[in-house]
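Note to self: the last two entries modelled the partners one at a time, which told us nothing about the interface. This time every component goes in together.
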Amino acid sequence: MRYRVLAVVAAAIALSVVAARSATAGSTTSHTLTVWLQVDAQNGWPQVVAAANQAFEANHNGWNVNVQYQSWGDHLQKFDATIAANDTPDVIEMGNTEMTKYMAAGAFADITADKGQFDNAKYWLGGLKKSSMFNGKLYGVPYYAGSRLVTFRTDLFKKAGIKKAPASLAKFENDLAKVKAHDHTKGFTPFYMAGTDWYSALSFVYDYGGSIATFSHGKWHGTLASKKSVAGLNAYKKFFRATSPKSASKLNEANPAPYTVFSQNRTSAIFGPGWFSCCTGKKFTKVTGQFVMPSHKAGKSMPGFLGGSDLAVPEQSNSQAQARAWMADFTSTANEKALQAVGNIPNATNLLNGTVNDRAAKASWFVPTAKHWVDVENGNILRTMLGQILTGQLSVKKAAQTADANIAYTLNQS
Amino acid sequence: MGATAEAAVGRPRRRPLVWRRIANGSVPYLLVAPVVLVLFAVLAYPIYYLVRISLEDFTLFTLAKGVGPYIGLKNFSSVLHDQVFWHTLLRTVVFTAVNVTLTIVGGTLIALLLKRLWTPVRILLTVGLILVWAMPPVVAVQVWIWMTNVQNGVLNYVLTTLHFGNYDGHNWFGSPISSLGMATTLIVWGALPFVVITVYAALSQVPHELVEAAQIDGAPSWRVFKDVTMPVIAPILYLLTCLSILWDFGVFTQVYLLIGQPAIVPANYVMGIYLWEQAEVLDLYGRGAAISILMLVIVAAMSIFYVRRMVRTAEIT
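The predicted structure of the combined assembly is written out below.
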């Protein structure tokens, strides 16, 4: 009896193995290309992703694309885990300030020789192209950018008698004083800027010709205490104190988000990414306008931080050729124009068409391309300096010198 | 009957006795074996890997290449020579002491209060405590963030309305002490239900007749608590203190989410945050592993007193 049961079990196993083998032999071999994009694409431009997948799958028989959406907060930790497990995606979207460390670590494939494969490569935006290169080699493809603008309440500006966008920083400060004079609501501030929002604050530094750090004689040097940078930081301190609430001196832009303050009718203007206009509240959608932050030099724009994303192929991917082909499809001229249509800045200057976003992108700055730059960001060195300056804890010069020392120490780590 | 015959008769009697003794003796080991096996299966490899990479220069650069060069105890030595480590350790010890004290003392007081309350009120309070316990830390953090919001948080509004000062626009996360103070309120609030319910259960073990006898003898309430109640609930309090030390010393979620990454600076690090910053943000995995091992040793040293007291009390009782 026992032998009979064993024989039945063995026959069942043998049959299922044969069935499984014949099923495999009968189907076409299928390959999957794994792509990690940020949720922005899922929410904002899923049609662009679908178009790229369709184009890729049409040209690559037997391949399908598996797009996995990630969030900015933890995608690097997850990516590190896949590197350790040798199970990376084939394409990954990276923030432009995140690129350098991974390029230096050898985590991405060198695609210098394949640059011609991508549309508009000759005209890529400087800020994005710079973030995709390390030691003269190309490791990433610019995807899209986002500039920084002033988002303001057109009704309140009109009420204060302001008819056009300010031509200079001094004029803007003056306009904000007029808005304040017309609105005495408790807790209302004409302008809201989180004091430690370094993306906004450093724009003042670049406006005065300053910078964060430079590389010379084989080492990085902090340059925030230079004459020009200090002039920019002083201008920032003066502008902040004249227009923003003192209580925001040590706040960051994550809590509360400037657009939340805007939507609560507590301010007439905020400075930040162009997409802030999305979230100014239903009540104020029709009275929300945007203009480029003016420079201290009349008639010019203040250089804004050019945030954005790049696409890269992890070195451990076994499908690098296919990954490059998908990136080419995803960043085609047609897809970049579709990205532009939903409020992004396309990846190349020849595609810019004069919108307020595009105008802002023309004057921009980018962080130092040092492999440890992301450590400066995560160590909150710049935020600490700004908090010290705005609260008067340290003089501008002293706070900048301290930050310079910390930046140099961090960037020059082996 | 000769010796041989006696032995022959005795043997069959002895064998079952010996086997029974072995069988009886091995029951506790057999009962505890599944737990030991599961713990071994779950923890052995991670701990081996942790120790291994703590002896390697294991960073993002080596992670991408898959090789970590052996550097001996250099990670430990660099951590022990880092001033930030010592400042963070001191801050965390103080933070832990404050949190544990508030949790245990507060929890015990509420448990004593529960004993004296009218039943419906006791049920209401118990339900409230269970709701607090059931709230996930991430949700609780969000509630705290809303309440302490600098622009329109209810805390600033209430304090200003009740004339405790002008808290309009007050930033509760403007200084390290204030930020960690807010984290303490959240951690203690979340930890109280467990302590209250456990101590309340322990209080039900205190013999009524002893309490009554002490009261008849004229002992004041605090004396009854000190000499009658405390000896009975002491083992539970040692256990709760031990667990609280373990939880509060390694706390991460509440502090990290409440203060928020953009505001986290070395001046408000606690050990969990320091470990995270080194291992995950800076990608210094080897150094992070060394910090983990040091934390393990420190927390073991911190709780040894309570564990010994707990074991001794258990032996006596």
